Amino acid sequence: MMPFDDAPGMVLTPARVSQPQSEAPASVTVIDRNLIEASGARELYEVLKLVPGMSAIKVDGNVPTVSYHATQARDVRRMLVLLDGRSQYQPGLARVNWNDMPVDIQDVERIEVTRGPAAAAYGANAFAAVINIITRDPRDISRSSVYLAGGNNAIRDGRAAAAGQTEDMAWRASVARRADDGYDEPFEGSRLPDAKRIETLNSEWLWSLDQKNTFGIQAGGSMSRLERLQDPSIGELGAYQQDPVQKGERAFLQLEWQHVFSQTHQLKLTGYGQYNNEVTDFNVCYFDPTTGQPGPGGGIFFSRELRDFYLQNPGGDIGATLAASFADPAVQSRFATLSAAGGDFCATNELDVQEERYDLELQDTLQINDRLRLVSGINVRQDRARSQTFLSGTEENFSYRVFGNLSAEVIDNVLVNLGGYWEHDEISDANFSPRAGVNWRFMPGHSLRYVYSEAIRTPDIYEERARTNIEAQQLSSPFASDPRGLLGWSPAFFFATQSSPGTQEPEEIRSWEVGYFGQFRMLDLDVRYFQETLTNLISGAINFAEFEPANDGEVAHQGTEAQLTWRPSVNHLLRATGAHIHTRTNIKTETRLAARDSGSLLWAWQLTDNWGFSTAYYLFGDYNDNTFERVDAQLRFRHELAGSEWEWKAVVQHGLNKQPLVFEENLYAEDRMWLGMSVRF
Predict the structure, then answer these.
(1) Burial 194-229 (b: 16+ CB within 10 A, else e)
(2) Closest-CA residue to 58 (of 598, 623, 637)
(3) Cα angle 309-315-318, degrees, rounded to a multiple of 5
(4) pLDDT per residue as tens digits for the range 342-376
């Protein structure tokens, strides 16, 4: 734990340019390296509990959910996450996969969160907020390091990192692994499968070609293995022979060139490609509809005749189809053929998706004069998604965009920010997102702001072009030898299929806020009052059993947020946040993750040159009528030995209540605790 910095705060994210936080056209939360270390967090998503109005929890066992002004518990699609400028928002199935993000928490230098719509700077899907994760600059790293940690609940973490520098080049690279067994409280008498194992690689090279040109390369990836819960809708049709296992692979390559024309004019060209492959497989022996036990008649669920009958059902309802299907002569004939085959009908099924993104962006930053600055740019992007399960093939979406942000000091101490983002893609055609803000510096270090902004979330490839097909693979005998003769087709698919009507409109948000930012000698304070109106929301279920992608959801948020950072000395830090939000909606599921009152309090104390202590308190009430309340504590000891810097730490996370997180199966029986050791040499 290092002494805390008392320098004035600068932020990069809101307007795509470094500026004092008091001049930013948005409310911003900054979590720097010292605060990350003081939090004691193992995983990156956990530190976002320090952001007012942010929900950061595990809703589905081992899958983190992070959402600002949260609404739905599982389908979190309304926030943009950037990792060194690369969008982590997946193009195929709109989501941010925090487990597979190719970065370890120790690679991160700082996190900037723009609280509020920021599509005027980053385009569609910068809807409720933008989280900008910035990794460490290799020029600031002078040592290699090794880290190991272990604790209860099978916590086993490790990391190795190296770095080097020459006169005109610097590099860093790290490999990391983290593992745990998820929630540990038995549910309904049995342990739920939610263990995970995640490995990451992250690297960067920087070359200073001359005084005006810098070239950078970033590369990395991740691999994950997650135990997943059994799907109840499948469990009604058959007996799982193994729990589902989700395996993920991700890779990326980013190139960046920066050219400095002068102190007032810079140009940046960035291109990146990233690949994501995710497969969840499971083996099921399907029930014979007449006996309710595994048998050959279970193959009827994958027959061509039942698929045809399902498509004739106007409502596309699975229950209604099964109830009426045996009155159909073709289904009766197929069932008789299957029953005569003998042997249980068992199959391996998988939920698969492969996603690719190729992005090229040119940004120009021009300080026109002392009062006028313009940030502008163009961007082109190609998204591609492949999935047999969700798309029955490959779908693509090409898009291009133009953006600009003008900052003008119209009169002394009054700053006006005007921004806009125009974009066109093959799914949603053309859209424009504006933002206007006024900042009044009524005294040094203190400002009032008013910001109005609009943003959209465009339907993803799945929402717009879904055509679901769950294939029966690795069939049991005798079905594997003659699927066409016994099931009516080859390959054989689950009878229920869903298709998108392709008529979805972008979700929309309109937001305004009044805020105050004050920077005192040892204290920073940010307070905001806001109102947000979300319309055209796609709130219905969109899965293989139910597919209701109508734009009929509406949500209204109104509330206040505050964050305070107090540094009474270089060895003390107090960070406090709070939010009070009223949420109204016409769709009940849009309130499951909406916490009316939430807050955090963190205190860090550098006791001596060697010893440091920190503790944090978190409160969120309520998630789906369940309150989250926890206290964390961390003790650290640092010393020199044989020319190396050693650090030891102990961390405890203590739940103050035994209420589940959102859903009743998400329970911890014991406190989380672990010991960590690192060596820098």
Answers:
(1) bbbbbbbbbbbbbeeeeeeebbbebbbbbbbebbbb
(2) 623
(3) 60
(4) 899 999 999 999 999 999 999 999 999 999 999 99
Q: How many helices and strands in the chain, by DSSP H and E?
A: 8, 32
Torsion region of 209: left, alpha or beta (phi above 0 gives left; psi -120 to 50 gives alpha): alpha
- The pLDDT-based confidence of 623 (bands split at 50, 70, 90) is confident
- Per-residue confidence band for 1, with pLDDT thresholds at 50, 70 and 90: very low
Residue 397 CA to residue 349 CA, distance in Å, equals 28
Give me 554's structure tokens. 């509406």
Question: Residue 27: is it exposed, middle or buried by C-beta count within 10 angstroms (0-12/13-18/19+)?
Answer: buried
Please state whether the peptide bond connecting residue 25 to the residue before it is cis, i.e. omega within 30 degrees of 0: no
The token duo for 291 is: 């006996």
Lowest mean pLDDT of 41-45, 385-389, 663-667, name the range.
663-667
Q: What is the DSSP letter of 226?
A: E
> What distance in Å separates the CA atoms of residue 53 and residue 578, rounded to the nearest whole number?
7
Q: Note the pTM of the prediction, 2 decimals.
A: 0.94
Q: CA gyration radius for the chain?
A: 27
Paired residues of 19 in beta bridges: 11
Q: How far apart are CA 235 and CA 559, in angstroms?
A: 42
Spatial separation of the C-alpha atoms in residues 330 and 310, rounded to whole Å? 12
C-alpha to C-alpha distance for 612 and 602, rounded to whole angstroms: 14
Distance of alpha carbon 307 from alpha carbon 325, whole angstroms: 10
Q: How far apart are CA 207 and CA 292, in angstroms?
A: 66
Q: Return d(Cα 602, Cα 634) in angstroms, integer.
A: 11
Tokens of 200: 């990451």
Angle at 153 between CA 650 and CA 594, to 5 degrees: 90
**How many whole angstroms separate alpha carbon 258 and alpha carbon 215?**
6
